[in-house]
Amino acid sequence: MVHTNMGLIPEFYVRDISASRAFYVGVLGFDVLFERPEEGFVYLAREGAELMLDAVDQGRTWLAAELEVPFGRGVNVQIWTADVDTLYKQVEQSGARIFLALEEVWYRTGVTYGGNRQFVVQDPDGYLLRFAQDLGTRNAVPSS
Questions:
Q1: Do β-strands 49-55 and 41-46 pair in parallel, antiparallel, or remain unpaired?
Q2: 35: exposed, middle or buried (Cβ count in 10 Å: 0-12, 13-18, 19+)
Q3: CB-based contacts of 23-28 (< 8 A; 24+ apart in sequence)
Q4: C-alpha 141 chain-centroid distance
Q5: For residue range 70-119, what is the model confidence (pLDDT) as tens digits?
Q6: Lower CB density within 10 Å: C or N end of the chain?
Q7: Where are the alpha helices (DSSP H) in the chain?
Q8: Which residues face 107 on adjacent strands?
Q9: Residue 95 region by backbone torsions, left for phi larger than 0, else alpha for psi between -120 and 50, else beta
Q10: What is the pTM assigned to this prediction?
Q11: Can you list the domains of the chain with their CATH numbers?
Q12: Beta strands 11-14 and 49-55: pairing type?
């Protein structure tokens, strides 16, 4: 098993592993690193980001409470990408639910601002995925 990311790797429970796999691979451009179809499990990667999909009705699950749709309430996952505009067009053309349209935002990070070009798409189970492209930094405007 080859992992490129030994940090945080989220695992999303899904209702239909085939539909979720098709969404992540076909629409969002993730690669399958490995999978265990008999367990309803897929391990994915895209531009250094990794995540796991696990069918909720197959195999072992670690649930603290009963799942209700949409899954992932209160969580959005940011995934860096080199070409957010092309990915956004692909997502639009797929008919996937765009939760937040493509935008440019600047977040204050101390005495500078960091820029993102970003959008948020909702996966088939309701998880929010924020794809962002780094726009660099700029100085904060001094307050008067």
A1: antiparallel
A2: middle
A3: 23/96, 23/123, 23/124, 24/51, 24/53, 24/123, 26/94, 27/90, 27/91, 27/94, 27/96, 28/87, 28/90, 28/91, 28/121, 28/129, 28/131
A4: 32
A5: 888 888 999 999 999 999 999 999 999 999 999 999 999 888 999 999 99
A6: C
A7: 17-22, 84-94
A8: 114
A9: left
A10: 0.88
A11: 11-57+75-138 (3.10.180.10)
A12: parallel
Q: What is the pLDDT of residues 8-19, one digit of tens each?
A: 899 999 999 999
Report the distance separating Cα 37 and Cα 18, nearest Å. 9
CA 17 from chain centre, in angstroms, equals: 16
Total length of the chain: 144
- Of 136, 134, 123, 102, which is closest to residue 30 (Cα–Cα)? 123
**Whole-angstrom Cα Rg for the chain:** 17
Give me the mean pLDDT over the 48-58 stretch: 91
pLDDT score recorded for residue 73: 86
